[in-house]
Recover the amino acids of this structure.
């Protein structure tokens, strides 16, 4: 996945390649590169951070919301994650992976931390619902574009064994710990640990094969 | 390398470990370059699971985050691998609260507050109106049999159609790159049993639109034409986009 793939889809559609659901390569001309921006952010460049925000906030927010299933909380946690990106930008090391996945790793961990904190203290604050009030209507179009992109991942998830798929998705999308996953699936701990790993390996191979949904 | 701790690679990448295991595993990573490489590799894969999970955040979030960074000190680079703190929710959360408070203070004065109240009120009003529609849209998008089609529009951009037979409804989303020249507009159509039915004309200069359409799955075609301002009763050919349903 290129850093800007989603952005390009959102901005320009998929044009003549409408039937192909593989991520569209970034158009080099216009789209800013997340890695470049992050390096500028590390030097305290607030304008670069604003551009990085525009590039990634929707995905950060979407991911956090997917895990938390709560718009009000998602907003708060997404903000925490984005502030983390600002705070720790200098610690991003491109040798370990792309800037985009670094940001999502932070966001995902934040979301999972919140899930765990929730489990510990069931503090259900009154939710005003105000969070969704000013969500632009464009969100609908975004959702549809997202679904197109998601199909490849879903296709590859379907290619896993049932236990691999459950182990990976219960952890990633639901924020369960591996002992919780083991309990939910009535499987021994070592099995779950192994399935998470080989599930990810299989997913990687499927995604890199560029198989269309 | 310790084989035992290494079995945590999958759970670690998926954030399915607790804080103690995370710390232990990260210590292990510092001593095991191959493990580091595997974690890096699989983390890229895990991040792909975030594909398509995006959703437009509330617009106020942008201002809030950008205000907060002005008050947040950045950490310097490290030479050892980064150990990102987990579970330290309180401090950044306090920062956000503090930043939000600062914004209010900077805004200052009760006049600003009143304007803010009015804006909030207006937002709620228009949101209430949009919400019934939004609920329908969500119901359609959540349908298990949702089908999505997309076509380029002549002149740039695309039209997307999403429909569900179970819901007997669908959405037409137009996102053209440019508005038609002169006082002309885009108009959306469905073709049902030989007749072209107007699904609405856009305003002059308008390039994007989303329409909820009842019975869309039983239409044969979705078309987009360019018409005089206000729209026409029958489509003017050629279509700038023509998309087969079914």
């Amino acid at each position: 996945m290129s850093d800007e793939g989603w952005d390009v889809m959102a901005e320009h559609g998929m044009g003549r390649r409408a039937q192909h659901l593989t991520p569209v390569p970034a158009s080099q001309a216009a789209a800013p590169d997340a890695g470049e921006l992050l390096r500028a952010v590390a030097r305290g460049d607030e304008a670069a951070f604003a551009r990085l925000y525009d590039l990634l906030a929707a995905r950060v927010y979407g991911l956090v919301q997917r895990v938390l299933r709560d718009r009000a909380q998602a907003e708060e946690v997404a903000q925490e994650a984005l502030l983390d990106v600002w705070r720790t930008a200098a610690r991003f090391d491109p040798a370990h992976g792309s800037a985009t996945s670094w940001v999502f790793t932070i966001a995902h961990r934040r979301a999972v931390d919140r899930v765990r904190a929730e489990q510990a203290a069931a503090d259900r604050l009154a939710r005003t619902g105000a969070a969704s009030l000013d969500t632009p209507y464009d969100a609908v179009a975004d959702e549809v574009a997202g679904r197109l992109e998601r199909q490849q991942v879903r296709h590859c998830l379907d290619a896993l064994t049932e236990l691999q798929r459950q182990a990976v998705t219960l952890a990633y999308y639901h924020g369960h710990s591996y002992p919780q996953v083991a309990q939910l699936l009535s499987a021994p701990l070592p099995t779950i640990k192994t399935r998470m790993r080989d599930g990810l390996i299989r997913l990687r191979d499927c995604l890199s094969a560029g198989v269309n949904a | 390398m310790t084989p035992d701790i290494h079995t945590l690679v999958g759970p670690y990448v998926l954030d399915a470990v607790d804080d103690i295991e995370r710390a232990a595993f990260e210590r292990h990573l510092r001593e095991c370059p191959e493990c580091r490489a595997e974690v890096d590799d699989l983390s890229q894969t895990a991040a792909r699971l975030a594909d398509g999970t995006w959703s437009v955040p509330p617009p106020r979030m942008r201002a809030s985050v950008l205000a907060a960074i002005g008050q947040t000190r950045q950490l310097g680079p490290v030479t050892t691998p980064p150990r990102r703190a987990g579970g330290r929710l309180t401090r950044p959360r306090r920062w956000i609260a503090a930043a939000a408070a600062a914004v209010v203070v900077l805004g200052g004065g009760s006049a600003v507050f009143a304007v803010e109240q009015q804006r909030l009120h207006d937002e709620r009003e228009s949101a209430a109106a949009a919400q019934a529609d939004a609920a329908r849209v969500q119901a359609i998008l959540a349908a298990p049999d949702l089908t999505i089609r997309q076509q380029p529009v002549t002149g740039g951009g695309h039209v997307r159609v999403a429909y569900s037979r179970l819901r007997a409804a669908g959405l037409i989303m137009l996102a053209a790159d440019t508005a038609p020249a002169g006082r002309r507009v885009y108009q959306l159509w469905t073709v049902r049993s030989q007749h072209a039915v107007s699904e609405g004309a856009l305003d002059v200069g308008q390039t994007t639109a989303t329409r909820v359409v009842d019975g869309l799955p039983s239409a044969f075609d979705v078309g987009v034409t360019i018409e005089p301002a206000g729209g026409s009763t029958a489509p003017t050919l050629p279509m700038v986009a023509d998309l087969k349903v079914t």
Observations:
- The CA atoms of residues 26 and 83 of chain B lie 7 Å apart.
- The two ends of chain B are 57 Å apart (CA to CA).
- Chain B has three domains: 3-47, 104-138, 147-244.
- The beta strands of chain B are 147-152, 157-164, 169-176, 184-192, 195-201, 208-214, 221-228, 241-244.
